[in-house]
Specification:
This protein is of the alpha+beta class. It contains 1 helix and 3 strands; from the N terminus they run E-E-E-H.
């Protein structure tokens, strides 16, 4: 398996992410960084006021996808 590719059956998420810097009114104030995230499968969109939250969001979504995937596998097993 090459790095960066998921194995068949492994949970994945695909997003479009845009990050930008918003300057402040006063030059002495630190700029604010923002992110926009769109789930390419569901179309769900959200804005993040802290780009550091992107990793937490990705981990939560992967865990959710993993639980959904495991639930679907259990329901499709032939008894």
């Amino acid at each position: 398996m090459s790095e960066g590719k998921a194995r068949a059956g492994q949970p994945t998420v695909s997003w479009m992410v845009r990050c930008w810097e918003e300057p402040r009114e006063k030059d002495s104030d630190q700029p604010v960084y923002r992110c926009f995230v769109r789930d390419l499968k569901t179309g769900e969109e959200r804005y993040l006021s802290d780009p550091g939250d992107l990793g937490d969001l990705a981990l939560r979504r992967l865990r959710e996808a993993g639980r959904t995937s495991k639930g679907m596998q259990k329901n499709h097993k032939i008894g």
